[in-house]
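Batch job 17 of 40 flagged for manual review because the log was empty.
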Amino acid sequence: MGRRILIIEDDADISELVSLHLRELEFEVEAALDGLSGLSKVSASDYDLVILDLSLPGVDGLEICRQIRSGSRYVPILMLTARDSEVDRVLGLETGADDYLAKPFSVLELLARVKALFRRVDALDSSRSADLAQPLTAGDLLIDPETRRVLLNGESVSLTAKEFDLLLHFAQNPDRVFTRAQLLDSVWGYGHVGYEHTVNSHINRLRGKVESDPSKPRHILTVWGVGYRFVDTETGEH
């Protein structure tokens, strides 16, 4: 059976057109025309991708994105928007969308982005299963890629999917300095050029959860004028 895709889009013509082309690629496609029925489908079943309109009747796309990201299972989200405002796109990305596409869009471009998201998921799954499944320790932190759990001084830390991916990427590359653009490319994937402030906000939230004292971080350090690096010892910034 092919991968399962859920389209939550209130424009029936767009939903039908996208569904038709995705089915031609042998994906299994379901659709919802409003936010409430979309949430119901997401809660009742597992999907490999959600194509999510930002503006929906009932429950908007941002709230659906938040609820999907609050779950334990990671599901890629491609957000659709008819809005031109950069603020709306940033909100979508910061809420947890993996990519966005502004209306009107080319169906060919949408299909290309869907394929790219699946390639990225496959690559991440392959790397995890190959040699990255062992828990990592970094001072007072324990990061378990297999269960996607994080412990700080033995206490469980609740992270969003993107926060976990960002922390894991850091922990797998200790002492390496990453620019914001490099982190966007590695953790968020293509399509996020120009949204370096998304990295900043995720770093701030992550520090608030995994640093004993976020004002004096010991693990996620700022390299001024460049970006960030992760230290797996107790040294930190002074």
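Reviewer: the log was empty due to a logging misconfiguration, but the result itself is present. The chain has two domains: 4-128, 133-230. Unflagging and moving on to job 18.
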